Every structure is written in C-alpha cells, then in structure tokens.
Amino acid sequence: MISINLNGREQLFDVEDDMPLLWLIREEAGLRGTKFGCGIAQCGACTVHIDNQAVRSCMYPAVAAHGKQVNTVETLGSKEAPHALQAAWIKHQVPQCGYCQSGMMMAAAALLKSTPNPSSDDIDTAMTNICRCGTYSRVKAAILDVAKEMSL
Amino acid sequence: MSLTRRMFVFGGAAIGGGLALGVIGLGTHLAMHDRLGVQREGNSKDTLLNLWLRINKDNTVTLLSPHTELGQGAGTGLTQIVADELDLNWQQIKLELAPATSEFSNGGVFEGFVGEMIGKPPAWAEHIASNAFNRLADLLNMQMTGGSASIRFTGWQVMREAAAAARQMLINAAIDKYGASINTTTDAGFVVDGDSRWSYGELVEHAATLDVPDNYTLRAKGERKFIGKAMPRHDLPDKIFLETQYSIDRHVEGMRYAAIAHSGVFGANVATINNLAEITSMRGVLGVENMGLSVAVIANNPWRAEQAVKALKITAVSHQNSDLSSASIETFQRESLQGKLSDAHSVGDIASVLGGSGETVEAEFWVPYLAHATMEPMNASAWLEGDKLHVAAGVQNPLYARVHAAKIANMDVEDVVFHAHSMGGGFGRRVGFSMSEDNPLMWIDEVVTLVKKYQFPIKLTWSREADTRQDVYRPAVLAKFSAQLDEHAKPRYWQSASYGSEGGAPASMPPYNVDNIKVQFANHPSPIPIGFWRSVENSQHAFFNESFIDILAEKAQADPIKYRLALLDKNDGHAKCLKEVAQLCNWQYGVSADGKAMGVAVQKSFGTMVATVAEVSLQNNQARVHRVWIVTDSGVVVNPDSAIAQVEGGVLFGLTAALYGRCDIENGGVKQSNFHDYPIIKMAEAPIVEVKLLESANEPGGFGEVGVPTIAPAVANALAILGKRPMRLPINA
C-alpha cells in the first residue's frame, strides 16, 4: 500500500510501485484536472506539486510519492476564490484549447514560489511545458503580471 | 417563413415558452446538390436547420451553435454577432452546443468552405457524395467545424440574418399587442417606444404567433456594440477552473480502459499475437482483441492497458506498403513529375516564350509528412444503455461521427447518442473524413467494436506514440519550379509542377503579374493516409511560391519586398499588406550588424490576406527566429483579441513545422513517435509576434488557420539573406 497526502488528505492506494503518479491521481483518486499528454515527461500537461516542487507525474512512480505531500491543480483555486494565476489567466485570455493549461498553471505556481520576481529568462527556463495552440506569450505576460502584483 | 439572400428564416413558439428561430439552408444545399449531381428525394430532406436562436421568457437568449470548441473560441464571436443584430446586453446571451442531430447539420457552411477555396467540390467531397452509403444522407450529415468558417459563414451569413429577423419580430409584437408606434426600436434587450419599454421576454409569446417579417434591416456599423470588440471568451473560465470536460476526462460507472497497438504498416492487418498468454496474465488485463488494423488490450486502469500493449509481440501481414520509405516516396514523386501532369492554372502561352534569352532559374522543394500532434491524444468512450449506444469524443464534425459510429455498430443512427466534448486541440485532425480514403475516426471504430463485444463501458485512449503513428498526415510534396528572367530581371514565364492535389485543391497560382504562367500537378494519390492539417494546401504551396519569388528577387539582386511590389498592381491586396508589414517591422534588406536578417512572405487564405516578416539569425548553423511581424487584411474583425490569439498560435504551429516537423516513413510506418523526436516549439524558442489587423467593411475573413502558411517561407527567405537558402523542410533537420 502506498500512502500519500493528496491535496491535504492522507490516502492509501493499492497499486503497483511503478504505476506513474498521473494514473493514480486520475483513475484511482478520480481527479481529472491533471492531464495526460505524452507519458515521457516531455510536455508537462501532467504537472503536479510534490512537497512544493513542480513534478511531471506521468513518469514519477507512485511509490516515490509514498509519505509525501502531493498537490494537484484542483487545489489552485475556484471561480469564487481564484488563485492569482487563474485570475491573470482570465485577464490575459490565455487558453485556447485549454488542455495544457492545468500543467502550465502548476508549473507557473511552483516557479513563483521559488522565484517570486522572475525575469523573462527565468520564465523561459522554468516554463518548458508544451502548448500546441501557441499561447506562450500570454502565459508569460500573465506570470509577469502576477509577479508584479505579489511584489507590491 | 421569410426568404433571405441564401436561406429561409422561420420562427415559432419554443417548447417551454418563448420564441425560437431557425434558419434553413435550403438554397445553399440545393446548390451543393446540383454541383455534386446528387439526386434529391422529395422536400423533407432538403430542409436543414443551421441553428436555433431561442429567446426565453426570462429575457435570456440561447444560441445553439453547430460548431464544436477546439481552442479557436469562435463561439464567443458568434454571440457577439447575434448580440449586435438582436440588440442584446452581453449578460443576456448564452451559448450552447447544438446536439449532433440532423436538424443541426451545417452543410451550408461546408459548401461555403468548399466553394470559397476552390470553386468546385474537391475529390474528397465527391467521395463523400458518391461512396457506398447514402449519397444524399452523407452530405446532410455534415456538422463541421473547419475551414476557418464558423464566423465567416455560420456567423456572418446565417446567424446575423436570424438575429435581425428576431429583432424585427419583437418590434412587431410590441406594435401588434400594445399599439406601439412605427418609431418603435430596441435598446439592449428591450423594445422601446418613447417612454414605454418592454423586455424581450415579455414580448416573446406574442412574437411567436407572428410571421417572420419579409423585411428587416441589418444593423449599421455605428450601431454595433460588440462586433469589433475584444469580448472575453465564454469558454475560458470553465477551462481555467477545470469545469471543461474533455472526452479523456469522461467517466461512466463501471468503465474499463483500452489501449491500442497498430500493426505498424499503413493498411496492414495484424496477423498474429505471439505472446497472448503473457499479456492476459498481466495484472488488471481483462481482454485482448485483434481488430484487424490494430490490437486492443482492455484493463481496469489505462496505464495497465498501455503496459500490456507495450509488452505485446505482434506480426503484421505482409503488405504492399511494407517496404515504403520516405526515400522511395520522394523518388516516386520525382518520377511522377517527369510523367503526365494535370493543369491547375494557366495564363498566357508559356510555349511561346520558352527558349528565349535570359537567365533560367530552377528550383526543387520538398516538404515532409506531418502529424497534427494535438495535446489531447485521440480517445473516445462508449457505453450501452438500454437499446442505445452512447459515444463520447471530441470531434470537429459530431453528426458525421455519430452516423459513422452507427455504421460501425450496425445500428440505426437514432439509436446512437453522441456526446461532443471540447477538444484538446483539433487542427483538422478531428474533421472525420480525409483526403485519401483513410478513416481518421479509427479510434471511434475501435471503441465501438470493443463495446459491442464486451458490453461494459470502455474508454479507449491512444498513447502519444499511437497518435503520432496513426494520423492522417499533412501530405509530403515535391515541387519543381522554373522561370526565366527578362532584361528587367522580371519573370518572362513561371512554371511549376508539384505532386498531388490535396484532394482537389492543387498548387495555387502565384499572385504576381507574370504574362505566362503554367501551374501543374501530378495527379496521384498518397500511399500514406493524408488529411486536413491546419491551413491545408496553403502550408506547402505558400512555402514553394513565396520561396521561389524570393529566389527570383535574389537573382535580380533586388529588395524582396520591392521586387514583389513591382509585380503587383498598386491596389492589389497583397501589395497593401506587404507595404503595411514593411512599415510595421521597419523593414531592413540585408544582414544587420548583429547578424540577423529579415525575410518576407505573403499569402491569402480562408478569405484573409496575410503578410509576414520574420527576423532570423543562424546559431551553430541552426535557425533562430527572434521576431515576427504580421499584417492581416480580413474585412470586419468580429473579435480582435481572438483573431490575434489565432494568428499568434498559427505562427507557432507553422514555425514548429518549418523548423522541426517531419514524419519519416520507414518500413511502411512513421518513425517518429513522441515529443522527443517530433518536437514542438517551446516558450524559450518562441519569437515575439506582433500582429496588426487591417479592417474594412468587407465580409469577415477567417483566422483559425491563416497564421500558418507564411511563416515557413518568411523564415526561409531570411535565411537566404544569411547565405543558407532552405529548399527542404524542416530547416533545423
């Protein structure tokens, strides 16, 4: 049995040690905000936070998350109480198809935690998620906007 | 019933109260049928509803749109058009996706798309109309989102009429019921006559008893409050707050999961599964199914299904495609260009000037096959409920997919319920039919086949590898060009030949004033499944044409913008955008002090003229694109922010193809498999894109695809100035 603190709740999962965390999250825990894109940690659609670090869950073995705190995009915010990034995503009209944006916002949230006032280069280095619709300029503008607000 | 330019608007009482208006694309369909020579069966089948507009008693308005959402955001633009014509406030209007039933088919949009592109139905349309299953029915089963057509055709030509008619009906209701004066008008959801005000909701029941007026006026530009404004997209809050359900997120009680291995050779069946016992003993595996072109493993978790698929050892039957490679395809294309060619376009008499004096310029270009690589891989769920089959998937043509699923299931269409989901990208992949005779909806066939056998709900998800290797690809094309320069270094003739016809849309004419032009193509099919890929044939032929004109400018030692302008009429749309983009980018011809160069390209597609300049440098012999400037000229722009987003996205889509995109064919299959060997541009490599939208009173042009075609030639033309002219894509191979 694998024990994970998932979104603030201790839970036990009876899965193979090598089942990627993504599939535990989506199918065993039923949280489908985290997306499958490639399965080889290239695209970042599956980004979650493990002990506050951005991790691509599609190649992260479930057993490695044993005893750790895993937060998914579901913890970010809600329409009633949006996370600053979600509000900026609306303001900048970031998504097109929207499929990669859970991962984008989770990568951005981890970046702002570690680097509250990132430069454009910092953002380029940290944000290696793939968006096939090509929303990168708006993603960057939204992150810079949130960083500016946070520093006020 | 009221006859308008191209369609009937009709209205009546909505179920549950209120006024409902529909539009019947009668005329448009008859025209399409006539072109295709389709036999009509009586009147009932001729009437097609393009949309319902419902004005409710609570003063809200519901727009039922036939178009699915794949990232383009057209739904918001459609509500902007309706809100202006019907004179609504922005909070009043709600957008709903129309169900996948024949009442909402939009063959008229399909026809507009086809007619606009090439003037006559292409081969794939003929195929749809003439295939074994009912010719007429198939045409009526179009509920298509594609061809950058939602705003241009559904919005501007159809919904605007319905909304304008509805507004007049509400005014007429106030006059008829309350004796309002002839000066009665509307004001943001109210009918107003002096001091008297009635909400639309108060008037709808009476309006529903009136005839649709013959006369109504479309709103003038000065009366528009929403068209032309950057209204926020309706769909974004749900996407950002995880309330959008993609089909991959669909869950049904008792659901099991299928993963797929294809045979590995296009068209070849799987002969044997060599380790069946090993697979069936894996944890969670519930079944293994040889379905011909593919093998499915069903398990109680999608990862377990995929693990089992990865462990499968299968043998494909020997097939004519087994030895196919990129090299053999290129050789065949080159040989075909030496053979009998079909004429696409001809101007003047090229034979009369062949052999004249002056430098002859020749060029050969090659572009490879390309996969779509939508972020959400192909997937679908299916389940049985009573005597109904339910199918949930993200497609650009839900009605077509529903009819297709019924055929596979051998069931009546009425017994199939189709749940159309928002798509994690489309780009033409999910249109439903292809330009070859291949089936782009193979994943729907697979899940339907499995559900019929296993009876429990199944979600089938293609791995990224399966998705990359079983696409309907952008066709690989070889093209040969020649021209001869006269004493002014202008082309005396322009001759091109390219392989294939993109299903009826062969090579395009150069837009330049050349007295003798001959554009030909080798009319042979592709051995690899081909389909619609964002901007379709424009993505290859803009690269060829705009590279070749640039090569001629290079031979003439001329500034490439000035050279083009000298070959265009003063008032030509290409010239207008070229001049604008030169100004926008502060055009510099030549290599800058820091080793950068600008390249230019221009192409009209989907009703929109686009001129693009790219600023490029070479770093370690690899192209690096720093900035891109784009000017579009597209008539009325309904939502400028959405238009810019689509152009920005189109540029990156085209740039990925220009720099990296290649699907190599090896042993009858695609070699590339995932983002490590089929890379997509990331943020760090994305250039700064500046877009300027020119507007006019003309009908709106499309935006979903128009950013794609010009970026590859603009980058190539910049590289030529840096001394490295790419004749083959991708550039950073």
TrEMBL record, chain A:
Pfam families to which the protein is assigned, alphabetical: Fer2, Fer2_2
One term of GO molecular function: 2 iron, 2 sulfur cluster binding
2Fe-2S ferredoxin-type domain mapped to chain residues: 1-76
SUPFAM superfamilies: 2Fe-2S ferredoxin-like, CO dehydrogenase ISP C-domain like
Signal peptide interval: none
Listed Gene3D superfamilies: 3.10.20.30, [2Fe-2S]-binding domain
Alphabetical keyword list: 2Fe-2S, Iron, Iron-sulfur, Metal-binding, Oxidoreductase, Ubiquinone
Keyword Iron carried by entry: yes
Highest taxon of the lineage: Bacteria
Protein name listed in UniProt: (2Fe-2S)-binding protein
Automatic annotation (TrEMBL), chain B:
Keyword tRNA-binding: no
Stretches that traverse the bilayer: 7-32
Keywords attached to this entry: Membrane, Transmembrane, Transmembrane helix
Presence of the UniProt keyword Iron-sulfur in the record: no
A family per Pfam: MoCoBD_1
Signal peptide: none
Gene Ontology terms for molecular function: oxidoreductase activity
Domain Aldehyde oxidase/xanthine dehydrogenase a/b hammerhead: 241-320
InterPro entries noted in UniProt: Ald_Oxase/Xan_DH_a/b, Ald_Oxase/Xan_DH_a/b_sf, AldOxase/xan_DH_MoCoBD1, AldOxase/xan_DH_MoCoBD2, AldOxase/xan_DH_Mopterin-bd_sf, N-heterocyclic_Hydroxylase, OxRdtase_Mopterin-bd_su_IorB, TAT_signal
Name under which the protein is recorded: Xanthine dehydrogenase family protein molybdopterin-binding subunit
